[in-house]
Every structure is written in C-alpha cells, then in structure tokens.
C-alpha cells in the first residue's frame, strides 16, 4: 500500500510525496544519479534498480512529473540509512528538500529507529534541521567503501 505524505502549502502548489514505487521514473532517477550527482556517478542501472527494490523510496511529484527522490535502506525496526536524496534543478528553491526530509523522518514505518545515518558533502545545514549531527564517536564506525568506477 502506498503512503502519501502531504503538507497543505505544497498541496496548493500541486506537489505530492509518495512511497508508491510504481510512480517512480527510474530513467530520471538513473540519469540524475549517474550523470549529475557527486556520489553515484558510474552506478550501473541494474544496481540502482536492485537498490530501489530493496529500499523504502520517496518520490516527489508535481502532477505527473517527478521532481525529486530519496530512499532509505532500513530494517524498519532499528536502523535507517538515508541516501540518494535529490531535487531536480528546475524544482529547487521551493522548500521541497526540507519537506522531503521532514516527511521521511516522520514516516510512521520509520518511527522508533535506534539509529539514522547518512553521508553528505554539502547539505549539512539541511539535515541538521532534523537532528542529524556528525558522528559522535567515529572511532567505533568502520566501512568498506567501493566507489563506482565509470568505464572509460
């Protein structure tokens, strides 16, 4: 069942946030992540599709046009990793990214998580509004980081 999160201000402007994956424009998402993002350039289409299939996804729409996207990798019980968050350039400066993050952190299926995480190079101000802070004890965190390599 799809969940629709709305805010009166955005409804009046014709915007909607939905977790209905059938509404996602995967071509648009792939093109943005592969060509325009700094974090997912070189991602293979099949990898993105698998990620979408196994994540809670949030699409931002104005009428039938997708304006943005985000996904949460989660077990819906203890942990959520917020990633692939973007609003397309033509829809920026309208407060949509703030509304999107607010909708995600307030989503009923994501309440009570013990830990949220995300990685960002340039949007600390956005996420800090919702309680995200730098990792308090980085010495206890470890990672394996294998960035996508774009074929030459």
From TrEMBL:
Every N-acetyltransferase domain range: 15-152
UniProt xrefs under InterPro entries: Acetyltransferase_Butenolide, Acyl_CoA_acyltransferase, GNAT_dom
Signal peptide (residue range): none
PROSITE patterns xref list: GNAT
This protein's name: GNAT superfamily N-acetyltransferase
Organism, scientific name: Mucilaginibacter lappiensis
Taxonomic lineage: Bacteria, Pseudomonadati, Bacteroidota, Sphingobacteriia, Sphingobacteriales
């Amino acid at each position: 069942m799809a969940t629709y999160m709305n805010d009166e201000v955005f409804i009046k402007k014709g915007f909607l946030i939905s977790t209905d994956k059938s509404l996602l424009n995967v071509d648009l998402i792939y093109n943005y992540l592969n060509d325009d993002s700094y974090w997912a350039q070189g991602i293979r289409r099949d990898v993105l599709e698998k990620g979408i299939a196994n994540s809670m996804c949030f699409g931002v729409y104005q009428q039938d046009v997708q304006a943005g996207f985000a996904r949460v990798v989660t077990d819906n019980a203890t942990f959520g990793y917020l990633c692939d968050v973007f609003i397309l350039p033509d829809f920026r400066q309208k407060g949509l990214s703030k509304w999107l993050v607010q909708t995600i952190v307030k989503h009923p299926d994501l309440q009570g998580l013990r830990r949220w995480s995300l990685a960002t190079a340039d949007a600390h101000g956005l996420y800090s509004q919702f309680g995200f802070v730098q990792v308090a004890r980085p010495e206890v965190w470890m990672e394996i980081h294998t960035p996508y390599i774009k074929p030459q």
